[in-house]
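Quick look at the format.
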Amino acid sequence: MNKESNQPLPRTTRRDFVKATGIAAAGAAFAPRIAGAFAGGSDEIKIGLVGCGGKGNSDIRQALSTNGKVKLWALGDAFEDKVNNTHKAFAENDKFKESTDCKERLFSGFDAFKQVVDSGVDVVFLVTTPGFRPMHFEYAISQGKNVFMQKPCAVDGAGVRKLLAANEDAKKKGVKVGVGLQRRHDPRYIETVKKIQDGAIGDVVSMRAYWDGQTPWVRPRQDGQTEMEYQMRNWYYFNWLCGDHICEQHIHNIDVCNWIMGDYPGLAQGKGGCEVRKGPDYGETFDHHVVEFVYGKKWDTAGVRMHSSCRHIPGCWGDVSEQVHGTNGSCHVGSGRLYDRKGNEVWRSEAGGDSEQLHKQEYLDAIRNNTPFNEGDNGGMASMTAIFGRMTTYSGKLLKWDDCLNTKVDVFPYSPDFKWDWAGEAPVKPGADGLYALPVPGVTKVV
């Protein structure tokens, strides 16, 4: 275990943390602009992409569609075929080919992230599988690069600690850090959350958050694949790569609840398991998690409860939303609707816009104009909240935030001695029956 990852992180002031970082992110677009502040007066921003999957391609399409000159300068991925496919997709697209100049800077392998960062880019988009995020972020910041990274930002407490430490360096250097929690840039969410925080439904007494849907995809094992390649290709079902779907998807809803509270939970307990998603291609993750988060330090006091549910089981009720209950009414946050205590609609937001596109525009504008923009702390804390929830469902225990953030049980192999090689050993291995060991509540240790 990396000794650095064992260092405990001093606890941040609870009440102001998430609210402050959310306001900073949402307000970046409205900060005063400083003409000619970008890179020696140049208007063109050179972008490098690390992680050439579907989300990486989507992020770059949005970045190249912003106002202002943007150039796709370098591509990197562990898999060469993904790099080549992404290059072809942009170089042969009539809309993007004039903004694509990366033919000489296509990198593959486990060290591709370093090659992209060192290729002369102004911004690096980190969109690999989440387990690698702290390592990649740490290196990019050490080289003074602006970073936009997708969520989650880590898969365990050690990764969150590494990321938050690197973000302190980012703040000192003044580089811009964006995190793909786009609801914080959605005009409807911004307007609705402000109404709640201003008391439109009274004091918040409870919240509900859902990402109950279907299994996204499965990539069965192919002939000739090593165990490392198989897990990397089928990354969604391995905890060391994905963090489980409570982290990879449900983080969005969890982050909204943190934003509303201007806080993060101090206690949690949960239940989960793998009821129907069985077999070797489904790895070591659960297909459902239900968590009770408490925004407060004591379990038996009137702290605000947030009831969190995420599920990947076909044929079941589905919902992706955040709902808030107050002393004077309730709110369906995503639809921007407030209700009185009798259930009558009393307000509806008319705001709208493509939150992901707005997010990229605000982020790149902040680089051009040298205005404040750093979402790294909130990205780390939101990731930790989702990890916190997973730790309760895997263990079946009532857990404290501090214990989970400072856990010595690592999920990702941070040791510098770990061999990153396609022929090397993967961090987890299947049993003789081809199945991977699942967490066992009541038995599995997480702290």
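Next, a different chain entirely:
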Amino acid sequence: MDAKRTLDGWRRRITARLDPDAGFADPPPPKPRGFAEDAMGLRDLEARIPPPEATYASPPRPAFRIHDRLSPEHAAGGGMVVDADGRRRPHYHGHRARLRERFLSGGADALPDYELLELLLFDAIPRVDVKPLAKRLLARFGDLSAVVAAPDAQILQVDGATDRVVLRLRMIDSFARRIGRAKIADKTLLSSWDDLVGYCRTAMAFRQTEAFRVLFLDRKNALLGDEELAQGTVGHVPVYPREVARRALELNASAIILVHNHPSGDPTPSTEDVEMTEAIVRACGALEIVVHDHIVIGAQGEASLRSLGLMG
């Protein structure tokens, strides 16, 4: 019986080879075994080997520094506090939310200068206690106005200040100038003197070098243009009376107000300031252009040459 089964099996195999339609197919080819490259994936491995011209280098180290935020050097006082439920947390947790709430409920008058500066720095430096930086900026420059107007290079010299901090301060400075200019844009300047002086202080009081600007007025003493005509050094700015007169003619101005700053902070007019004013008055007088005043701006205040009797 076994021999018959074996014989039938051989017959079926021979028939399948001779007649493919008999329903028997060739067995699949055997899988590679042993140490063949295809079996071990060596061809794929070769594809991952770097080419001969490749160079090798160690991975770069992270550029950031990890500070201990709870240390007095990097946080405002450092340390932990214990809540009513006994949980310990860093002292600054929730500080930003509390400061924003105080500002929204009480306004700017409810906050000292350093906390107002903190609010500005929140978006510039996330998730870090910025109170030490705010206090360092105020200690370096004196007050909020001086911080906002400080040169970029000097701001970056303060420990903790970054390019994002400079950007926020430049934005606030630009907003302040635009708001001050808007207050005098459509007004008679001689009747809006306080707004005029406030705008000039915002634009020039804390500059590190002297600058000379001219406000050009129409027949109703409304503002036609506000232009900075010259920039100078710490103690001098070159001003050419004929250039002032020429620009007034181009704008069809009937009157002008001269403004320049003293980086020293003292707005007291110098002898050179008086002589320059007289020369501009003569040049413009020949063209029937009135020089209303010359204002000197300094961090300590401002001075009007006409009020001081120094304009003839």
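The radius of gyration is 40 Å.

See the schema section for token definitions.
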